[in-house]
């Protein structure tokens, strides 16, 4: 079965595409997109892989679901298209960058600028029905994204994984912590952030310190 995913990932993930669970997932997603409004648009489902080639991955940020509001999801976790109001989690991410690195709060919420520098912005579930959070969970996406994380862990080294919140930390079970640098904190959503589990984590400066230490170019956040 052919899946429209970037060439650099195709040979790595091809074994997944052949599995029964993935073929069932494709059928489910096709039916959902035919019968309901779903996000992101079809051509953006694998955007995280289009913007960030396998060989370029230096940092992985794991989200949960795509945004389910009109025009928000663009296939990169926590990211929105230009001109779209920043959701609360993204606001808190930018606030932390502002205090951590002294970078002014940006106008654009489109994080493709990070992805092009080697940040894989991976949601655990890559699709969602409009206005129904979690509606495409437990249909096979989680198994697929576990395989993505496992492939990065096995085939690369010195990748920084940013695991925000309990859900992302569970996804991190696939990571070989001897080979990679794992940073964890609370989720940037207001519920977690306002309880003191997000702000001050300094993940952005710590990521760049690690990359510099490994003689890799840092990320312009």
From TrEMBL:
Enzyme class: hydrolase
Subcellular localization(s) per the UniProt record: Cytoplasm
One CC-aspect GO term: cytoplasm
InterPro entries in UniProt: UDG_fam1 (IPR002043), Ura-DNA_Glyclase_AS (IPR018085), Uracil-DNA_glycosylase-like (IPR005122), Uracil-DNA_glycosylase-like_sf (IPR036895)
Active site: 65 (proton acceptor)
Keywords for the protein's UniProt record, in alphabetical order: Cytoplasm, DNA damage, DNA repair, Hydrolase
Domain Uracil-DNA glycosylase-like: 50-211
A molecular function GO annotation: uracil DNA N-glycosylase activity
Enzyme Commission number: 3.2.2.27
Signal peptide positions (record): none
Main function: Excises uracil residues from the DNA which can arise as a result of misincorporation of dUMP residues by DNA polymerase or due to deamination of cytosine.
Similarity comment: family membership: Belongs to the uracil-DNA glycosylase (UDG) superfamily. UNG family.
UniProt protein name: Uracil-DNA glycosylase
Source species: Tenacibaculum skagerrakense
